[in-house]
Amino acid sequence: ANAIVELLLSKVVTLGNVQVIIDGFAAMGFPNCGGAIDGTHIPILGPDHQGSQYINRKGYFSMMLQALVDHKGRFTNINVGWPGKVHDARVFRNSGLFRWLQEGIYFPDQKITVGDVEMPIVILGDPAY
To answer: What is the DSSP string of 17-28?
Structure first.
């Protein structure tokens, strides 16, 4: 697992060309969009320690995977490892992606004007995000 994280992850899960992503989402009707985000449950065997934390709302043991994808559904950022009981919003708030977005270092400072409002690069997500 360490070899995958250290050698492969940064080559496969990468932001890539932000303008290509923005143009791709714009072609689908979502202007100035840098990605789409959601969480999913990865089923696991119940751990011996703190097993109840890994039982999700559907009643099975899982680990959370949060993923940001580009306009073609390719991973551009992932966060994995939180127990299945944890809500998407908590995973997001504690992710590196959230910190980078707050600090303004994940996407370039590129705004468009919609009506009379300046809109920065946005991410599509459900209400948890």
So the answer is: -HHHHHHHHHHT
Going by C-alpha positions, the residue among 74, 77, 72 that lies closest to residue 100 is 77
Reading the block at residue 66, the tokens are: 């949060």
Distance between CA atoms of residues 86 and 90, nearest Å: 7
User: φ and ψ at 42, to 5 degrees?
Assistant: -100, 115
Structure tokens at 54: 């890994």
47-98 pLDDT tens trace: 888 889 999 999 999 999 999 999 999 999 999 989 999 999 999 999 999 9
